[in-house]
Input
Amino acid sequence: MTTLTDDTLPTTPRAMRDEMIVFAVMALLLASVPFTGVYPFFVMQALCFALLACAFNLLVGYGGLLSFGHAMFLGTAGYCSAHALKVWALPPELGILVGVAAAFVLSIVTGYISIRRQGIYFSMITLALSQLLYFIYLQAPFTHGEDGIQGIPQGRMFGVFDLSKPTVLYYVVLAGFLGGFLLIFRIINSPFGEVLKSIRENEQRAISLGYRTDQYKFLAFILSGTLAGFAGSLKVFVAQNASLTDVHWTMSGEVVLMTLVGGLGTIFGPVVGAFAIIAMQQYLAGFGQWVTVIQGSIFVVCVLTFRRGVIGEIAHYFRRSL
Amino acid sequence: MQALYAQLLVGLINGSFYALLSLGLAVIFGMLNIINFAHGALYMMGAFVAYFLLNLGGINYWWALLLAPIIVGIFGMILERTMLQWLTGLDHLYGLLLTFGIALIVQGVFQNYFGSSGLPYAIPDQLRGGMNLGFMFLPIYRGWVVVFSLIVCLATWFLIEKTRLGAYLRAATENPTLVRAFGINVPRMITLTYGLGVGLAALAGVLSAPINQVRPLMGADLIIVVFAVVVIGGMGSIMGSIITGFALGVIEGLTKYFYPEASNTVVFVLMVLVLLVKPTGLTGRAA
Output
């Protein structure tokens, strides 16, 4: 059985150096966005989804666990941050902390339940759990049901950065994204990440070598869910609302699509995929439900002919790990 | 008490759909090793085909009950021949992703032409009205759905567990290479199996058309509940799928009566409880 990712790539120190160069180029490009006239709201939105997709990819690309419910972390952190900012009037940094803490707790609970099954069952369980949360948020008073939490104050980060100024907000979101990205990069290249990859390749062998694979998978789930929550908290400042769309299964599907397009198990793939899908939604916004049809078609085409994704194909061509 | 019986009946009807859909999922998973995410979309197509047959072709409910599963089944077999068969040997998760994409396409196309609102489908004349059973009033159509679904489920069980064709099917599930060596056309059997599973979904769609309106997204949320049903029951046994489906429908109906706030979530909560107590599912072997 072939696995989800391309395993022929080298992971030598030289490959690490390539990745650091690409990261530096990406950071510079993103940092120069406010000077280019590109609509910053679009880039901020894409950055939040890129972080979400990277967190999702940590679980599927390196742990081999395909979660079909990652929207639950995005939405839960979003709702909790929004509530903390609006109702409790907390400053932005504490608002983010509340959201991330909520996602952390949620990922412990859902991870404990879902990693009991593998493969296809794991996907179905995460999907069902996120649907359970969707119905809870639909009925819970603090989420305001169909209306969502709107008009969230942006405030001053650490009392200094005025987030209502688009440029300041942009750099705060960018810093959050780069921080999260580097953390994921570090996790992947740590001994923990190596064990995770070995579990993806051959869980039985990892067990026989003495690794408690369930604990590794559980920890990967918690890290992935918490980072996805961080993306959700950042998104609150960009969109200034938190709504049911963020918890719906269509959102979970979009995250899967972004990662698939960019390349499962590649470091930069989810970022490329997120920008591509968000840009597509932006340009095709006037076409109504045809966007859904196009997204479905991309799924079909990617699975049938393009399983490595954009970055995966490039990495394979140059025989580098990206 | 009237209300309790009414909710029990609603539960049995939902249970019929859960049973028909999870049965199809289990049969497909057995042969193709694919979790058919498009199952909800194909269920919706069944209802729409019945609607088109009636409104464009003047073909009544009884013919639709036969024709819609065949038409949607053929559509499914085309999907299997053109796309799903290329996934043989790949990770199971690709099957989930591919069929999820197909579901998005089918639902998106229908949404473009029919929006999100429901289209009415009349109950056939022969099944109109109701019966007074003494303790409750039973609308005949609803009783018919439960009885007919049960018969179809049992017939499918009989086909797979008790006939020669079913024996080939079970053998091919266990070891396709060996069955091929005996001269049986396994790829064709796989295609037909997918058609059968899809046909069952379409049949459920036709049955539900007069009860729930015909809507493009009627299968989208249903399929997630059916996934939870499958996780609870496991996909190892045909009879297990049928019993779990009906039982969960009844539990959901009871919840609607005793604690309506939880009726949307009760199946998911039960799934969590089952996973905590018996991670392999009630009838399941380890995945």
